[in-house]
Structure formats: C-alpha cells, structure tokens
Design a protein that fits this description.
Length: 172
C-alpha cells in the first residue's frame, strides 16, 4: 500500500537525518567550531549576536519542521495496523509526555538501539533501564571495526546481549 511506503520513507529519512546529527554532535567537542564553519560559508550573512546554539536550533527546526507537519496532517488511523504507525504513535506519545521535540525523541531511540521500553526509561531518568551506558557515536565506530579485542571491550561495557542488539539495530 502506497501510504505505508510513503510513511516508512519519511521515518527512514528522519532517522537518517537524526543519525547524521548523532554522528556530528558526538564528534564535535566544541560547538563554536560549527558556528565558525557556518559564518565562513555564507560570509557576512550572520549577525555577530547570533550564537552557535541559535544556529544549531535553526538548523534542527528547519530539518524537522516539514516532517512534523506532515505527520500532524496525516490521519493516524490509516496506518494504525502497521509497525510504522505504531512507531509514529509512540514517538508522538513520548513528545507529549516529556514535552520534548521530535529530534530529542529520535536521538533517545538511536542511543537505545530503538528499544521502546529502554527509550521511555531513558527519557524519564537519563539512564538505561539495565544500568548500562547509552550508545555513543564513538561506540558505534568501534563496533564497525572487525576486531575481537575491541568487541570484547564493548561487551564488557554494554553486555553481550546489548552488543548483539546494537549490531542488529545498525544493520536495520
């Protein structure tokens, strides 16, 4: 059914955008670098009073605004039977429950390998339900290396089950 595919595409696009942000925010230690990059790109376009966080928020808003509007206009009943519809409803529920934006919810899902229960607990407490740390970009880069020593370090940090779930999540 086309509506299902279209919505699946939107969610895939959203996760891709959030993943790019996850990758860039985890690796940037100082947001002033981002600000300098932006001001050199568009020359005199930036006012001196504009901070890196203002620019960052503007970028996030423009990236996610369209998707949110499309979701709000679309009747949820048309896709309630599909897994995609459930994901959308869960994300909207978390946004309302914790008064956070779509970006924050998506990041929480990424850090918790897409697990609903773990993400819910993380949004409530800032920690994982099982006591292990959340995944970072650096951890994902380590995971991609086919090195038994590194894999064992990750298993020690996250537990074997979480490493296996993360590998499956990154492939999906």
């Amino acid at each position: 059914e086309p509506p299902h595919n279209e919505e699946a595409g939107q969610i895939a696009g959203l996760f891709a955008a959030a993943n790019r942000e996850f990758e860039s925010t985890e690796s940037e230690s100082d947001t002033s670098d981002i600000s300098e990059d932006l001001s050199t790109q568009d020359g005199a376009g930036n006012s001196p009073g504009e901070t890196a966080s203002d620019l960052k928020t503007g970028l996030e808003d423009s990236a996610f605004c369209d998707t949110q509007l499309q979701w709000e206009k679309r009747p949820t009943s048309t896709c309630s039977s599909s897994a995609v519809g459930e994901v959308v409803k869960t994300m909207q529920h978390f946004m309302e429950k914790f008064s956070v934006d779509l970006f924050t919810v998506t990041q929480a899902f990424l850090k918790n390998s897409g697990e609903v229960e773990a993400t819910l607990y993380f949004l409530q407490t800032g920690q994982r339900l099982d006591g292990y740390p959340v995944w970072s970009r650096e951890d994902d880069l380590e995971l991609q290396k086919d090195d038994e020593h590194i894999r064992n370090k990750l298993i020690a940090k996250f537990g074997a089950e979480n490493v296996a779930k993360r590998i499956a999540f990154r492939k999906s």
